[in-house]
Amino acid sequence: MITFLSGGTGTPKLLQGARNILDDTEISVIVNTGEDIWYQGGHISPDVDTVMYLFAGILNTDSWWGIKDDTFTTDKILKKAFPDYYMSIGDQDRAIQILRAELLGKGMSLTSITQELSRFFSVKGNILPMSDSPWTTYVKTPKGELHFQEYWVKYRGNCGISAIFHKPEEFPLATPKVISAIRSSKAVIIGPSNPVTSIFPILSCAGVKEELEKKKVIAISPFIGDNPVSGPAAELMKIMGYSADSQGVSDIYGDIVNFFIQDTRDTIKIDGSILCDTLMKSPEIAEDLMRKILSTI
Ligand code: GDP
Fold this sequence. Notes:
By secondary structure, the protein is an alpha/beta fold. Helix content is 39%, strand content 19%. The chain has a single domain (2-294), classed as CofD-like domains (Rossmann fold), CATH 3.40.50.
């Protein structure tokens, strides 16, 4: 078993490559839930859904969210009635969010719901939300305190951030399934996801770091040079006091990482790191990268 720590874009790209090499039953994915949000009566767990749709073979891999060829009939009506609605949600995707909201309301855990949905989609990969209690990323901006989705989707990251914080303040507990996935893994791969909004929340779950210290951990940088391949990682890392490059990523992860992989185009070379082509423009490049990662195990 190999376990990945994942957000909703960079690591899913790597998972595409991993699935060409490993059987799905040999893959566990611990997924960030720090961007989850109740929205329009549904419960969105964006990273869990992206990973689940990937394994189900229905992910829209142009946008890396939502279901491919989904329709937006309900979305159009809602946006006409309520122009303030800022997220676009496909009809099939919305059905999953309504179902999740319904089951959460009945007291089912996010882990159990994800298992049920995985069964529904015949997913064989072991998809595990990092925690069953909410721990949500917020930012302080001149517009006030914003949920990360509002900052990134509504304001497109253009509102200036002075701080990042989480609600509730106390760290979440990793689920027993997360801990046992790490324990039974040959190695853990921290995929090239946003270190602040995707990986930091997973590493903050009580119990995770202690387990990782006992394992072989390989991390892949989401930066090439001074820029992340996509998304707001650079600004967020600077706010957290880290440099916006692979060095900053390596500093955030610290000594839980045994092998650090950075892109061949990076100008700063981190001591002991492995250089690879990490720009996954196709599933074939992701597969090549995955083979190199597996050769370190
Ligand atoms: P989110 O939940 O949608 O923010 O997705 P993730 O956290 O999983 O991924 C976002 C990060 O993926 C960004 O910081 C990107 O730099 C990184 N990323 C996306 N595509 C690639 C790629 O092809 N190669 C590398 N190295 N990083 C990537």
